[in-house]
Automatic annotation (TrEMBL):
A GO term, aspect molecular function: hydrolase activity, hydrolyzing O-glycosyl compounds
Pfam families: Glyco_hydro_1 (PF00232)
Domain of life per record: Eukaryota
Native source species: Scleropages formosus (Asian bonytongue)
Protein name: Klotho beta
GO BP term (any one): carbohydrate metabolic process
Family indicated by similarity: Belongs to the glycosyl hydrolase 1 family.
Amino acid sequence: LTWPAPGSGSVNETELFLHATFPPGFLWGTGSSAFQTEGAWDQEGKGPSIWDNFTRSRAGSAGPTADTASASYQRWKEDVAALKLLGVHYYSFSLSWPRLFPDGDAPGTPNPAGVAHYSRLIDHLRREGIEPVVTLYHWDLPLALQEQYGGWLNDTLVDVFDRYAAFCFRTYGERVRYWVTIHNPYLVAWHGYRTGLHAPGETESPAAAFAVAHNLIKAHAKAWHTYDRWFRARQRGRVSIALGTHWMEPLRGQASQANVDRCQESLEAVLGWFAEPIHGTGTYPASLRQSRSGLLPELTDAEKQQIRGTADFFALSFGPNNLRLGRILSRFGQQVSLDLRRLLNWIRLEYDDPAVFVAENGWFSDAAVGTEDTVAIYLMKKFINQVLQAIIHDGVRVIGYTAWSLVDGFEWNYGYGVRRGLFYVDFGEPSRSRLPKTSAFFYKQVISNHGFPDGDKSLEVRGQFPCGFHWGVSDSTLQV
């Protein structure tokens, strides 16, 4: 029933929209990452990251950087005020590894200013009744580790990351209940070390990307065991890894078994690459081992035992950075789809009904769009309702939803060319003040209503288009 024909399975309920509320205890939040929002890239003892280096080497002095970004390092209290306006239960943010350890390795002396900054943020969030959800690594590897070891290509980083994680657990763990070790390792491995689109910008062989992924998985697993052995009993937290993916399905009218099999293999090559060792059998998917024979590292029996089951919930990232990847896969009767509900069902079926935490979800607006981001509202409403349908109709155990992101920031390869924030930031204004967008008020209402109550018309817009409004249809030569 993962890829049923229209009308033949529960995933394809004919109703277009579900009016209902989320289960009691469902968590609402929003998130950001350190590199995209903090700025202050060389202030108060912070060392350079691979992304600081990458943005300079890629575009020269005229290219966009995240040197100032959204200025969240200075304006973190305004970020917390924005969270209070939304009424969220939690805030998902990442620690800047080079801000805590400018030279990378945790045996070195931590940067006192960086340690104090995150401590203040966590304390302030808790005072305001907002749960901190903390990511240890959201792509900003200390440049020193890249230069000294070659980054994630070197398995030395497995132990280095474990020491860094242990420091964070020890320093902040009494105040943090939810940890994410690594955010979207697929993008780190494939675009950091194969295509060169992401930092550190390496264009090695496919074997290099698989070696990097291997080390990322082992680093996550070792950090999970460190938490489980030394911190869990006292701190009573939960630890996972946020896995990103697209969703593929057969083109309409082309749902042959061969195309369905290709869709399955596409999911296994992205999400399954990391999920199968951690949430599944402890090894890589069979289709990936077959198609990448000789390139994919072998997991030893000891590694399988060390890796399998090292997640206390299934953290999922589903957004434009993942879906953009699917363009190269949308061939042979397949297409990329924005169907989050189907993806949640796939996870339920593949990995024995885990508790799913949507760690990142949302879309983007053009940079020219200001505070009236209507398209973002439409897509947010669509995604959230798909989550609700997955819970109500399909029994998927989704425990939380993270609207991405809190404020506009530096959007990786897009620079400042797109916006993803619920709060508008004018990057030409030195103050970097935050203005709530219409999507922020919409999300606030969804949280207040705990979903879409039956009969509630407050979230619907009814009426007629004005006289003279033009309707049309279009196509493109590439599509036809």
